[in-house]
């Protein structure tokens, strides 16, 4: 049964990954043509910096999934509840830490990178990136629990479907409004 779940997880992950790569390439092409080089540079900088902010998680999700595996397989609901509450608390702290570090980085961007200042409302754009990154930790415990229960395909379908929907909306907004803030 575990092998079948693993194969199913792999197939779902592979399909969604390739589809998102193709859709992401199309989105970047539209972004460059509609928004220009300055905003493309800012967006790429922000994307890279938020990736660094995500390092604050430090693999806690993987460690928690491995800790949850045994209680899930044995049906130890008391331990599952305890671990998910602990994980929820840890993710709340991580979310706050990401928000705090993101604000500090935002001021650093504003004062130390001159080319970013050429783009108006750059701090507002950065704030949206940081808030979005911080909020992802509010539901991270759920995906960790599903992953530990060998239901990664469910997590990937939800994440992939959400990402596909967001990219489609971003493409629509770029084509119709040419507005980075709405993007």
Automatic annotation (TrEMBL):
Q: What keywords were assigned to this record?
A: Membrane, Transmembrane, Transmembrane helix
Q: Does the keyword Membrane apply?
A: yes
What is the residue range of the signal peptide feature?
none
Transmembrane regions listed in the UniProt entry = 12-31, 51-69, 90-113, 119-140, 161-181
Q: What is this protein called?
A: Oligosaccharide flippase family protein
- Supply the source organism for this entry: Salmonella virchow
């Amino acid at each position: 049964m575990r092998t079948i779940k693993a194969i199913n997880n792999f197939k779902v992950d592979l399909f969604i990954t390739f589809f998102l790569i193709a859709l992401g390439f199309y989105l970047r092409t539209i972004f460059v043509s509609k928004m220009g080089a300055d905003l493309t540079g800012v967006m790429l900088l922000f994307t890279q910096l938020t990736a660094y902010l995500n390092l604050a998680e430090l693999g806690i999700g993987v460690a928690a999934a491995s800790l949850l595996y045994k209680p899930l397989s044995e049906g130890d609901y008391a331990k599952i509840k305890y671990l998910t509450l602990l994980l929820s608390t840890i993710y709340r702290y991580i979310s706050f830490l990401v928000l705090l570090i993101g604000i500090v980085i935002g001021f650093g961007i504003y004062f130390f990178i001159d080319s970013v200042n050429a783009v108006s409302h750059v701090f507002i754009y950065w704030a949206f990136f940081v808030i979005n990154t911080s909020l992802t930790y509010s539901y991270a415990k759920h995906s960790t629990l599903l992953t530990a229960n060998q239901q990664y395909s469910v997590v990937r379908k939800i994440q992939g479907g959400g990402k596909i929907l967001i990219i489609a909306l971003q493409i629509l907004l770029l084509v119709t409004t040419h507005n980075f803030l709405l993007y």
